[in-house]
Amino acid sequence: EGQLVESGGGSVQAGGSLRLSCTASGFTFDDAAINWYRPGPGNECELVSSISSDGRIVSYADSVKGRFTISRDNAKNTVYLQMNSLKPEDTAVYYCAAEGGTVAAPCWGPSGYWGQGTQVTVSS
13-65: per-residue pLDDT in tens? Predict the structure, then answer.
């Protein structure tokens, strides 16, 4: 069974930085696009950032564009989310996810492979 494990969350002051990691096992990571989500106000899964299987195509929500950078190391089965210039409104549990699994999303979103989430708290 495929699995994703997030790490790197924590508590920082506004303007600070964190780097989240998402490490995969149990499925063909090299073929999988990976998404980072966080729950929105109505518990919908807000898509924060995505990266294609080969890392060439990335995308960001408008709210994080210019501050967050997604990358991946297929040799390590890991995707990273570098978060700079953090704001209090970035406070959330961040989840990574991939298509192909049957795990229910922790928020209103697609089923797939989901991690357990990592908490990011930004204080003003």
Answer: 999 999 999 999 999 999 999 999 999 999 999 999 999 999 999 999 999 99
pLDDT digit string (tens) for 87-117? 999 999 999 999 988 899 999 999 999 999 9
Q: Is 79 left (phi over 0), alpha (psi -120 to 50) or beta?
A: beta
- What is the C-alpha end-to-end distance of the chain, expressed in Å? 40
Residue 95, token pair as written in the block: 């989840």
